[in-house]
Amino acid sequence: MLKFCSLYSGSSGNCLLVQSDKTKILIDAGVSCRRITNALASLGVDITEIDAILITHEHSDHVSSLPVLSKKFNIPIYTTVKTWDVIIGTITGKHKYHSYVGADDPVRPGSAYPSSIHFFNIGKEFEIGDLKIKPFEIPHDAIEPCGFNIFNHDTKISIATDIGHMNSTLIKHLKNSSFVFLEANHDPAIVKYCNYPYFLKKRILSKHGHLCNDIAGQTISELSKHGLKHVMLGHLSKENNFPELAYNTVTEVLSLNNINLNSINLSVASRTEPSEFIEVS
Known about the structure:
- By secondary structure, the chain is of the alpha/beta class.
- The chain has helices spanning 33-42, 60-63, 66-73, 81-92, 168-174, 188-193, 198-205, 213-223, 243-256, and strands spanning 2-8, 15-19, 24-27, 52-54, 77-79, 117-119, 126-128, 131-137, 146-152, 155-160, 179-183, 230-234, 265-268, 278-280.
- It has nine helices and 14 strands.
- Strands 6-5-4-3-2-1-14 form a seven-stranded mixed beta sheet. It has a seven-stranded mixed beta sheet with strand order 7-8-9-10-11-12-13.
- Helix 9 links the parallel strand 12 and strand 13 (265-268).
């Protein structure tokens, strides 16, 4: 059995928890160390129980507390070489291009990050405890962004946020997941009329920006034909979306596609507090 909880999710910061009977991992660390440890404690999980932190990409709302969290609790970090170069370069003002490849090549880059760094290759499966993890490419304006398929025995869940557009390759990666954590970032009409500067609106709506509510609904409609049982919508924009709008838009799209709304457990992640655990088997 796999259990999933969104600790925090949104444009202001992201951190997710996935656990099996033997392994606990965080995906991203984009809010403060104190908020993450407190959120875990509220769920009965001690931060020292975390076996690894997986990083989707280098943007600050996904890695802002990574240095403190890793150093204080000596938690191994899993990321790609290119993503790590940008993260460490942002902190030190220098970018170092490494020759390390694969998840079996840990390095110790210095006092800022005393825990081991494990590099993975997108598309290549690796293991942490009793979890098998396969990172897959996503279209976003980062150096090497990815989502994750996570397997435990015959159970598959998928994490897919910060997606500029949906395509057949992404759908293929998400198929046969019992649970998907999927981005529903914005309503395009709100973005067009909000107070954001033009360049930011253009970025959000671009093919390497963020996924809108309607496309999230279309994606879920397709995945519902391939074993999907649970969906949590995440990474909602504070300014260009709100939970009721995301939920209602997705359910309307599902209805238009003749999907039985009782066949899928649909929920929306909070920006400010942990969700309930979703158990997937």
